[in-house]
Amino acid sequence: MIPTPHINASEKGIIAETILLPGDPLRAKYIAEHYLESAAQFNATRNMLGYTGTYKGKKVSVMGTGMGMPSMGIYSYELIHFYGVKNLIRVGSCGSLQESVNVRDIVVGMSASTNSNYANQYNLPGTYAPSASWELLKRAVDAAEKKGIELKVGNILSSDVFYDDDHEAWKRWAKMGVLAVEMEAAALYMNAARAGANALCILTVSDSLVTQEATTAQERQNTFTQMMEIALEIA
Length: 235
Ligand code: HPA
Hints:
This protein has 235 residues and is an alpha/beta fold. Helix content is 31%, strand content 27%.
């Protein structure tokens, strides 16, 4: 089924086996323009911009996913099943749930807890634990170590709700050691696991639910650069 309902690339080979996935399509454009060589746009359906280019001679794609698990679920499914994408690396932002996780830190989701019902489709007789690809995670940790960039690796929360009616709900996840909250990783990890693909979620901490602190656009840019160095190194 190519093109798919949501991705307009006319042939499988137009999208690389490895793709970076920011939430914001304009972030995808920025990454293509600033980090990839010879980038060509392959998608504009719903303005969900996608590009393929090369990084250090290796073919790499980048595309926005939108916000939330339904959106991430659609794009990652189509990339894996219809375009043969094998390695999916989310590059996003998150809110800290721990005093030990500061704004501007980089968090990597070893696993992604969730309040979503996404796993219901698999009809499992229990609770599934969405996890990152060990290979991608190890490579990210090794690349960060080499570059002297500190990573906070652990469990993250993929939430269906940004404006939670229960202002204290995040504290119950924090008590379980969950590092940070975002809104897409669990769906990405589940789609990848179900299809035998590899996924990883790398996040910059844009705000803290603990301290109410938030980063400025300039600060976000600096940590974004470090996150991108790691993501591209393992791509
Ligand atoms: N909640 C959910 N997703 C986020 C947040 C948050 O506080 N910050 C950045 N992404």
